[in-house]
Specification:
single chain; 5-stranded antiparallel β-sheet; 13 helices; Heat Shock Protein 90; cell membrane; transferase; 5-stranded mixed β-sheet; Beta-Lactamase; EC 2.7.13.3
Length: 538
């Protein structure tokens, strides 16, 4: 099946996070709106009843203090006068009933003439004691809010007046206010719905329409991958590392509080810090950081045309790079042997020709001279450099230099056993410095010359490599130790300028030092102290 026909099946959604939150918010808004509406309705009802209570109380007190009422109560038959007053006030105020009564509850007035003269239905004891009393009571006209006030003459209660409003009319007032309440509720619902929809839409975009289970599963998978891969991975946003897995923390030596700090404050090597800060695209670039040689890839993370940040990956290539250096040395040895074999073949042809010409003595002398010259070089290096790997390197470089037309001189003062220093590190130091020196010599004018001196004592090892080249092509010697500086254009992709960076790495690891003399040519002098506690190799 082709890739174009493949599809990824996903489990049916139970609803995205945004939809579930939208439904939850809508339900919450509906419940709150119902509760709020009920509370507002009850509060409005209570307010309307309180207003009615205050209205009937004020009117009852006013009637009880009215002089015409007092005059009527002194008459032999107060009823007719009080009915006239009640009708006039009732028409003017709109209350439902005004009942004047005797202290024994006998009604003088009532909206229903048929009950005049009958007993008033309700509580009058507080009024008989001289107080105004309010209550909600069911009388002959139905449930009502009423106030009963005493009518006093010279401090004596001579009659009572009750003023009331039926609850159905109070409810009518509330019904008239209900459209306003419903309009307010509708406005609140509309605003809440719009806000909920806006929040839901934003959340839907931010969560990519995924549901809670999908988000949880995605987080668990991503977290597991992030912390289980053997490569380091960091995410960079705004010039700061915002996320790093365990391997990246280990490789880069990041502090615990790395998150959100500028890259320049994290103590990364110059070239690596520059790469991460730039955010530029990088593929399989080699960088040196501390004791590690790392392959770094970096690219921006984009979605829908927006750059979300930059992510970079790191792979530790220290051992691989060291082996590569050793392999380069072996290749150099092989090339030297090939060159030597080629020259030996030429010499053999020359000797055979001499013999054929009857000059056997000259042929023997020629062969003896060549053998003695080659053997003297081998004997001198092996006798003075007892570390096999270093001796082999020097021999190989001598043959390489001879093939390239370079005079490689190993000084008579050279003497070293490599004690306390790893052979791999010796190969890295001497191999890279001699290679750079030969490259520099080739770019200069004849005669081309490279001079090597190695001295070792109880304090440490000193390696000096000089060349007859044009010298350093920079006014800032410290730049030569950066990854991108080189004496040549490296043919290997992404490997330019790594040799001197590796040299610097070895020097720093041993706590040594290096000086560079700018001319004529260039002279590198490296000093490595003998590490304490390391046994000498015999």
């Amino acid at each position: 099946m082709s890739c174009e026909n493949m599809t990824v099946k996903r489990k049916p959604k139970r609803g995205s996070v945004a939809r579930q939150i939208l439904a939850l918010q809508a339900g919450a808004v509906a419940v709150l709106l119902l509760l709020g509406g009920a509370l507002i309705y009850l509060e409005a009802k209570r307010g309307t009843e309180a207003k009615a209570t205050a209205e009937v109380t004020d009117l009852a007190l006013s009637l009880a203090a009215l002089p015409q009422v007092h005059d009527a109560t002194r008459a032999e038959d107060p009823g007719p006068k009080l009915r006239g007053i009640a009708d006039a006030v009732d028409e003017a105020t709109g209350v439902d009933f005004i009942v004047f009564m005797d202290t024994d509850r006998t009604r003088y007035t009532h909206p229903n003439p048929e009950v005049i003269g009958e007993a008033y239905i309700g509580t009058i004891d507080p009024a008989l004691d001289g107080e105004v009393y309010t209550e909600t009571y069911t009388g002959t006209l139905g449930p009502s809010v009423r106030a009963i006030a005493p009518i006093e003459d010279d401090g004596e209660v001579v009659a009572l007046v009750a003023v009331g409003i039926l609850q159905e009319n109070i409810g009518g007032e509330l019904q008239r206010r209900l459209p306003q309440l419903l309009g307010l509720a509708a406005l609140v619902l509309l605003v809440s719905a719009a806000g909920t929809w806006a929040i839901g839409s934003r959340l839907h975009r931010q969560t990519l329409g995924l549901g809670p289970e999908e988000l949880t599963r995605m987080y668990e998978h991503h977290d597991a991958v992030l912390h289980s891969v053997r490569s380091g991975l960091v995410v960079i946003d705004g010039g700061a590392i915002v996320l790093a897995n365990d391997e990246a923390v280990r490789l880069l030596g990041l502090p615990e509080d790395y998150e959100g700090r500028p890259i320049a404050e994290l103590g990364l090597s110059g070239s690596l810090a520059d790469l991460l800060s730039s955010g530029r695209f990088a593929e399989d670039e080699l960088h040196v950081h501390g004791d590690a040689v790392m392959v770094v890839n970096q690219r921006p993370a984009e979605r829908d045309g927006r750059t979300l940040g930059v992510f970079a990956t790191f792979r530790d290539q220290t051992d691989f790079q060291a082996l590569t250096g050793e392999l380069d040395s072996v290749r150099g040895f092989a090339e030297a042997l090939r060159a030597q074999a080629h020259e030996s073949a030429n010499r053999m042809h020359a000797m055979v020709t001499m013999i054929e010409l009857g000059r056997a003595d000259q042929a023997v002398a020629f062969a003896t001279t060549e053998l003695e010259t080659s053997q003297r070089l081998v004997d001198r290096i092996v006798a003075r450099v007892t570390e096999p790997a270093l001796a082999a390197l020097l021999l190989g470089k001598s043959y390489q230099a001879h093939e390239k037309g370079i005079d490689l001189v190993i000084t008579d003062e050279t003497a070293a056993d490599g004690a306390g220093i790893e052979p791999r590190d010796l190969i890295t130091l001497a191999g890279n410095l001699i290679d750079n020196a030969m490259d520099a010599a080739l770019s200069g004018e004849p005669p081309r010359r490279v001079e090597v001196s190695i001295a070792q004592d109880e304090q440490g090892l000193t390696l000096t490599v000089g060349d007859s080249g044009p010298g350093l092509a920079t006014d800032r010697p410290e730049e030569i130790w950066t990854r991108d500086w080189s004496t040549k254009t490296d043919s290997r992709p992404h490997g330019r300028g790594l040799g001197l960076a590796l040299v610097r790495q070895v020097i720093d690891r041993y706590g040594g030092s290096v000086t560079v003399d700018r001319g004529p040519g260039a002279v590198f002098t490296v000093w490595l102290p003998r590490p304490e506690g390391r046994e000498e190799r015999s």
